[in-house]
Recover the amino acids of this structure.
């Protein structure tokens, strides 16, 4: 690390005026030290501490090793430097008395002066190193690090054991975050017989040495962000030591507090190992680590009397801990509470109930500081008490019967009922505090395991940490136990973070859950167990939501619920899980803490996005605002918007089901636009009237929920289309960029769902669509509002990007009805933004033009097509791959529009379009086909369209000859390349598209042989079935026999298709096997097409194929095809693309009859006449037999 330089300025303030600050202990949790320059000091002060330090430092630098009084002077100067607690005498922004380079020079010089034989001086030097590095935040350079490491490791070898505690303490400070830089010394420390391994061993009798050695190892394993990880060899050694420590029992005659400190150090080290880069568990390490962490999650928890396993094994069924025959007495966490604990607990619960109303008015519980555990630890809660949080069920596994029901958790009871005397209570309180830190550390480690482990591996251990609904017997000890019963809010929050991490991304695993049908009595399916687990999580988290008082922990509860809702398959579960949660969250939207309000909106967002639209959520959205009759826990005052009623407004009477907008939409609109009535906090944004709006995080989350509502439940929100548009316009008119951005996103979402309504394939009845007149009015208002300013906001390119996306979401039919000047404004702005210097803006503008080119009112405008084409061609040469990718996509859309115009308008449009522009597009698409795959996939699509679009007059021009050949060869190369499968099947489709052009000289062009051979190769050998489907469809497109070339090429095509049909089931990939029906369908259609265009010279090769075993296999598949017994989801689509008109079995058989008639009429050529006639007769017999078989019932 490079040391900072700076100068020392003496201070003029007296020692009594020096501010006092708390000491900063050494901790691996501390942020990396960032030095400040000397100018950041408060100049002009001259404290005695400053003067003393400078004086002592100068004297130390002046000392020489040959001085006669070296020992006495060193002893005196070191004592003077150690006499002050610098962390209490310095300003918070002061980092050192001397420039860091001078401080490092001082440490190196003193380490040379203090011989290892003078052990008292060695101890003082180590203490000085610890003070300077820890309290003054000194950053060492590499040379200083090496010198101090060499000194301390030598001291551990030479000096007496009684000095090693201080030496290790200094060493732990030196190596903090510097593990990778200590590689020269790691062998001495962590190698075989390394000193740290000796002192950290469970057999080490000195507990303090063991603790400091573990702290050293943890600090070596600590990885600062951006730093290279520690070598895996030493990280593995440290991991095993930490894990062995966690499993080792407490040595006899060892103080409980000291042993807790050892466990804390081992947990911190384990966390550093797991967080220091990718970690691979070997053997039973994972199960052993999880077993240790699960045991320590309940360290010191009263009432837990369980014999813990040493290893957890993955299991599909829940794994419960067994009850022990006898519990050892030395473990503190297993000791039973005093006999009168139940009585005192009951009294405490009664007192709590009496004073609940008063405590609600006080903020002491809701503003607990970092050391809240110390306050909570004055009482001895038992897991059996507070059973109200578990609905009358305790979570312990061997707990005595509760003395009576309690509606409040034990950790919320008053602390005045402690049964300990003051000295005893103080010791017990400290022990409980240390145990709480162990539980917190264990959960931090578990969180690191969850984040670093593959999801599929983690799922095997779910039953050890997440309960289902056990039938009878004691409930298991899981994360839910901690969330509901742990006395420390920090520990509860950590458990919630772990549970959230486990739920995050678990949608695929939980998708198996189902309980809509009655379970079988013989056994319980795994899907039913998962469904029970989801229901248990709902029940437990709902209880935690009701009982939690800490704002920070309450936020974590709601976030955890959001993760659960986002991943659970509610469409496969019995309804009723979401309704109580939905209604229970209503009062929290007016919670005083802004983080709670934001998390509530996040949960509502998850509710309206999960498997939308869910019938249960639709019913909840239709319920009027004040309808709380379904639950007894709500009062009329709990109405969501009752606290923000505007002047002259009151809660409307209960409306009809669909006569009012969803109350959640009303809530979000109010949160975004209406000022807060409660102005107690200063987080709101001021408005022109002086009233404060909700804080930005709340407004942003409300806008996000509105977007989710529009996306998933637009049928309920579309009556408020104009009102939502006004909210978006208001947001776009504000000055905060994030609010503007979310307003634009909301407009884009509205446009997208309207387009979705009007798509023909979605079959939305016209009566349920937004009327076209209303859509036109909506966009007229939007385009005449602040969206124009957002489009021109160059200082906010992200907002410009979102505004471009909004323009691209206009319904094409509505765009055609907008005023001409509005249409021209949209086009002009987009064309101009394609020249933006910001690649995000340019990408969005090019994409929007690619959308507009497909609008019916614009695609026939030759001038617009030409302008768009020139813009796209310029973007294809951009430096940014994102811009080029969108430009290629837009070019593909433009060429799609050319094909549509060719079919609808005809030759007139083709003649109006410039030949030179077409040539440029062909050349640009050919170049783009050699770009990255995401550019290439659309470039080959454009090439296929262009080759289809070109006219005979253009193809015969010399200027087009070479570009035409290059374009076809580019497609051939792409088909045969190792590109992604999407690129290859697009290239196959493009070749088939080109084959549709009757003007292409497929029979004589030199490149046609390469085109057919590439398709023949992939149709029979490619592993990807979709590529084979596209290639087979392409081979079936040429309309006449001449396109296939000579009989040799025709025979090659036939053999390739026949071989592909024979091997259509040969795959080991299930995801490919699902396309096998579609592949056989397309191949059968292609073979019949070849038979329909075949000539007499093709008969011998057809006879050779149909006469043997191959012919019987082909006949079997053709029968299924003709009878429509075998058609996949893509079969009809591929047949349509291949030009096949036979859709029904009758039409296919009619086509076969026509083929048979045509073949009978064929006349063989003079040369080889007899052979061809004989072969034709065999083929005709084959088809007649095939036809007869298909006609049979």
């Amino acid at each position: 690390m490079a040391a900072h330089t700076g100068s020392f300025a003496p201070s003029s303030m007296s020692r009594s005026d020096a501010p006092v600050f708390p000491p900063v202990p050494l901790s691996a949790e501390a942020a990396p030290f960032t030095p400040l320059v000397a100018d950041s000091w408060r100049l002009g002060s001259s404290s005695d501490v400053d003067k003393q330090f400078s004086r002592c430092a100068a004297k130390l630098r002046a000392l020489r090793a040959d001085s006669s009084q070296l020992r006495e002077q060193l002893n005196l100067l070191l004592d003077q430097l150690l006499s002050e607690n610098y962390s209490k005498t310095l300003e918070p922004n002061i980092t050192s008395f001397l420039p860091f380079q001078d401080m490092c020079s001082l440490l190196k010089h003193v380490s040379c002066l203090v011989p290892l034989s003078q052990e008292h001086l060695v101890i003082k030097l180590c203490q000085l190193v610890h003070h300077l590095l820890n309290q003054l935040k000194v950053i060492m350079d590499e040379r200083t690090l090496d010198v101090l490491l060499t000194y301390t490791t030598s001291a551990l070898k030479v000096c007496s054991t009684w000095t090693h505690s201080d030496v290790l303490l200094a060493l732990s400070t030196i190596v903090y975050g510097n593990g990778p830089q200590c590689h020269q010394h790691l062998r001495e420390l962590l190698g075989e017989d390394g000193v740290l391994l000796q002192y950290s061993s469970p057999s080490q009798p000195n507990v303090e040495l063991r603790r400091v050695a573990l702290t050293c190892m943890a600090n070596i394993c600590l990885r600062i962000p951006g730093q290279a990880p520690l070598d895996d060899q030493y990280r593995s050694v440290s991991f095993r030591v930490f894990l062995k420590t966690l499993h080792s029992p407490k040595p006899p005659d060892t103080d409980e507090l000291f042993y807790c400190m050892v466990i804390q150090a081992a947990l911190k080290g384990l966390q550093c190992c797991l967080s220091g880069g990718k970690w691979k568990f070997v053997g039973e390490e994972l199960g052993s680590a999880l077993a240790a962490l699960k045991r320590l999650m309940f360290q010191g928890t009263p009432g837990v009397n369980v014999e813990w396993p040493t290893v957890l094994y993955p299991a599909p069924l829940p794994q419960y801990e067994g009850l022990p025959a006898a519990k050892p007495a030395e473990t503190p966490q297993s000791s039973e509470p005093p006999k009168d604990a139940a009585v005192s607990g009951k009294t405490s619960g009664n007192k709590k109930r009496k004073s609940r109303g008063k405590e609600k008015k006080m903020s002491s519980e809701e503003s607990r500081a970092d050391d809240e555990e110390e306050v909570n630890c004055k009482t001895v809660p038992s897991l059996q008490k507070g059973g109200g949080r578990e609905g009358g069920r305790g979570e312990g596994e061997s707990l005595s019967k509760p003395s009576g029901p309690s509606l409040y958790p034990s950790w919320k009871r008053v602390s005045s009922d402690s049964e300990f005397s003051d000295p005893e209570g103080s010791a017990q309180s400290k022990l409980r505090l240390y145990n709480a830190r162990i539980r917190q550390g264990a959960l931090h480690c578990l969180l690191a395991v969850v984040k670093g482990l593959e999801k599929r591996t983690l799922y095997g251990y779910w039953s050890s940490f997440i309960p289902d609904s056990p039938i009878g017997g004691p409930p298991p000890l899981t994360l839910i136990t901690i969330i509901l019963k742990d006395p420390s809010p920090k520990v509860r929050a950590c458990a919630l973070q772990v549970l959230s991490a486990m739920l995050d991304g678990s949608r695929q695993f939980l998708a198996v859950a189902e309980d809509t049908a009655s379970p079988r009595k013989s056994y319980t399916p795994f899907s039913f167990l998962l469904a029970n687990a989801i229901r248990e999580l709902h029940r437990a988290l709902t209880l935690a939501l009701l009982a939690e008082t800490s704002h920070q922990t309450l936020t974590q509860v709601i976030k955890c619920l959001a993760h659960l809702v986002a991943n659970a398959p509610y469409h496969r579960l019995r309804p009723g899980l979401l309704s109580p949660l939905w209604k229970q969250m209503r009062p929290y939207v007016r919670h005083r803490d802004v983080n709670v309000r934001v998390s509530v909106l996040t949960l509502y967002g998850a509710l309206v996005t999960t498997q939308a639209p869910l019938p249960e959520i639709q019913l909840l959205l239709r319920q009027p605002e004040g309808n709380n009759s379904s639950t007894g826990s709500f009062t009329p005052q709990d109405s969501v918007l009752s606290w923000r009623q505007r002047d002259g407004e009151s809660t409307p009477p209960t409306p009809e089901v669909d006569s009012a907008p969803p109350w959640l939409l009303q809530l979000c609109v109010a949160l975004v636009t209406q000022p807060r009535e409660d102005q107690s906090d200063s987080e709101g944004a001021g408005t022109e009237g002086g009233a404060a709006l909700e804080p930005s995080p709340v407004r942003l989350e409300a806008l996000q929920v509105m977007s989710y509502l529009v996306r998933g439940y637009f049928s309920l929100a579309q009556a408020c289309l104009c009102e939502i548009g006004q909210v978006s316009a208001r947001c776009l008119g504000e000055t905060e960029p994030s609010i503007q951005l979310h307003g634009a996103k909301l407009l884009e979402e509205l446009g997208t769902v309207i387009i979705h309504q009007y798509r023909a394939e979605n079959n939305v009845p016209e009566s349920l669509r937004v009327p076209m007149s209303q859509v036109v009015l909506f966009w007229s208002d939007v385009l005449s509002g602040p969206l124009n300013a957002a489009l021109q906001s160059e200082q906010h390119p992200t907002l410009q990007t979102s505004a471009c996306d909004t323009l691209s979401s206009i319904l094409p039919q509505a765009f055609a009805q907008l005023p001409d000047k509005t249409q021209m404004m949209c086009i002009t702005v987009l064309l101009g933004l394609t020249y933006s210097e910001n690649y995000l803006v340019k990408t969005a503008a090019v994409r929007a033009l690619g959308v507009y080119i497909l609008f019916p009112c614009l695609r026939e405008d030759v001038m617009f097509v030409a302008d768009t084409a020139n813009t796209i061609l310029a973007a294809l040469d951009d430096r940014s791959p994102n811009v080029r990718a969108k430009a290629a996509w837009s070019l593909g859309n433009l060429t799609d529009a050319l094909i549509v115009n060719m079919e609808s308008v005809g030759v007139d449009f083709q003649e109006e379009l410039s030949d030179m522009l077409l040539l440029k597009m062909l050349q640009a698409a050919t170049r783009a086909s050699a770009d990255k795959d995401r550019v290439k996939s659309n470039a080959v699509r454009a090439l296929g369209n262009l080759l289809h679009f070109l006219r005979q007059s253009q193809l015969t021009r010399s200027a087009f000859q070479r570009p035409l050949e290059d374009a076809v060869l580019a497609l051939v190369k792409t088909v045969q390349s190792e590109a992604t499968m999407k690129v290859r099947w697009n290239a196959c489709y493009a070749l088939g598209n080109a084959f549709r052009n009757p003007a292409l000289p497929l029979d004589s062009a030199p490149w046609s042989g390469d085109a057919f051979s590439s398709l023949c190769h992939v149709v029979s050998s490619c592993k990807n079935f979709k590529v084979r489907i596209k290639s087979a469809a392409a081979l079936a497109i040429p309309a006449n026999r001449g396109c296939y070339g000579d009989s040799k090429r025709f025979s090659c095509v036939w053999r390739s298709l026949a071989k592909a049909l024979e091997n259509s089931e040969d795959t080991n990939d299930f995801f490919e096997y699902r396309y096998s029906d579609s592949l056989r369908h397309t191949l059968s259609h292609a073979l019949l097409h070849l038979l329909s265009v075949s000539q007499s010279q093709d008969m011998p090769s057809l006879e050779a194929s149909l006469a043997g075993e191959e012919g019987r296999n082909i006949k079997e598949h053709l029968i299924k095809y003709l009878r429509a017994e075998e058609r996949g989801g893509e079969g009809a689509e591929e047949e349509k693309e291949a030009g096949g008109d036979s859709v029904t079995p009758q039409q296919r058989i009619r086509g076969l009859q026509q083929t048979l008639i045509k073949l009978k009429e064929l006349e063989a050529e003079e040369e080889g006449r007899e052979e061809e006639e004989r072969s034709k007769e065999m083929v005709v017999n084959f088809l007649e037999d095939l036809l007869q078989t298909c006609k049979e019932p």
Remarks:
- The mean pLDDT is 79.
- The first helix runs from residue 48 to 62.
- The radius of gyration is 39 Å.
